[in-house]
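name: query_chain
kind: protein
chains: 1
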Amino acid sequence: MDNYSPMERSSGGIGLRPVSASDLAWMAEMASNIELIGPHNWAGERPVEEIEAELKESLDANGLATSSGGTLVVVLEDGTPIGDVSWRTERWGPSVRSRCPTIGVALLPEFRGRGMGTVAQRLLVDHLFVNDPELHRVQSDTATDNIAEQRALQKVGFVREGVVRDAEFRDGGFHDHTLYSVLRSEWEQWQR
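structure:
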């Protein structure tokens, strides 16, 4: 991942920046609290200290980024962190060119429903395509009952591809997800 100033990648008063050590406490608190993270991003009860230790272990010089994925902090123009965007790399076949980042977003409750998640995900798609000229596809999936996220993905330019049955175990049961993607050629049209 490249280094850039907090608002170098920004739009509509929202920017992305690498994770710093000072972010770990609030990120762990957010991840450990269903009211803060939201029901669709809730991974179950875990101690804040355990989550923070895992985050700290994965923090490198560029924030939370590895060859298989990463995390960037979503910030307001004044630098206030309001959530994060992340990606994990999937592979649709044996070829390296078949790799495809799957993105997601988590915002604090007071910043949801205001279009900020849409902007943050658009910035992340830009970041991924700009920093990897070989990348052909970015995808996202969300629970079929997460209508707000489905609308946000469509506003970003993602195309609905279909339903992935029983994809996520949450709340004691399996839930279907809806799969979306955007191709480089579609993203390049946005740039015009």
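note: The chain is about 30% helix and 40% strand.
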